[in-house]
């Protein structure tokens, strides 16, 4: 006869939430909670709808925080004119890249509209569908 552990739904939910709100692997979560990896996987699947959105939001927050912390100089630092010139050049390059990206995307949309004979861009004054 196989020993089968019985876990409360609250415990299963807590383990699944821990998986979805961290960057840890299923195996790591299993070790932390002393549960088989397959059990963690099953719980993660059961609570996927509930917690996967939290994980994506958490990842967006992390990404946004890292962008803010690395892309913008902190006001506390006094930058030399050379550093400011370098930063200015970096921003100009980024601007050019985004302008090229915008042109490319607009060209792709124009081509798709012509080839597929459909309207992709939103018309001014068009009502939003509910």
Automatic annotation (TrEMBL):
This is Terminase ATPase subunit N-terminal domain-containing protein. SUPFAM superfamilies: Homeodomain-like (SSF46689). Residues 13-48 form the Terminase ATPase subunit N-terminal domain. It comes from termite gut metagenome. Residues 74-101 form a coiled coil. Keywords: Coiled coil.
């Amino acid at each position: 006869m196989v020993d089968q552990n019985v876990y409360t739904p609250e415990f299963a939910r807590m383990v699944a939430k821990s998986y979805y709100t961290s960057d840890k692997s299923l195996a790591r979560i299993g070790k932390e909670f002393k549960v088989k990896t397959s059990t963690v996987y099953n719980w993660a699947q059961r609570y996927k709808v509930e917690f996967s959105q939290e994980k994506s939001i958490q990842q967006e927050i992390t990404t946004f925080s890292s962008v803010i912390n690395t892309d913008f100089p902190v006001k506390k630092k006094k930058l030399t004119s050379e550093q400011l010139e370098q930063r200015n050049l970096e921003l100009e390059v980024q601007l050019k890249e985004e302008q090229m990206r915008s042109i490319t995307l607009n060209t792709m949309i124009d081509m798709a509209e012509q080839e597929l004979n459909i309207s992709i861009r939103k018309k001014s004054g068009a009502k939003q569908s509910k």
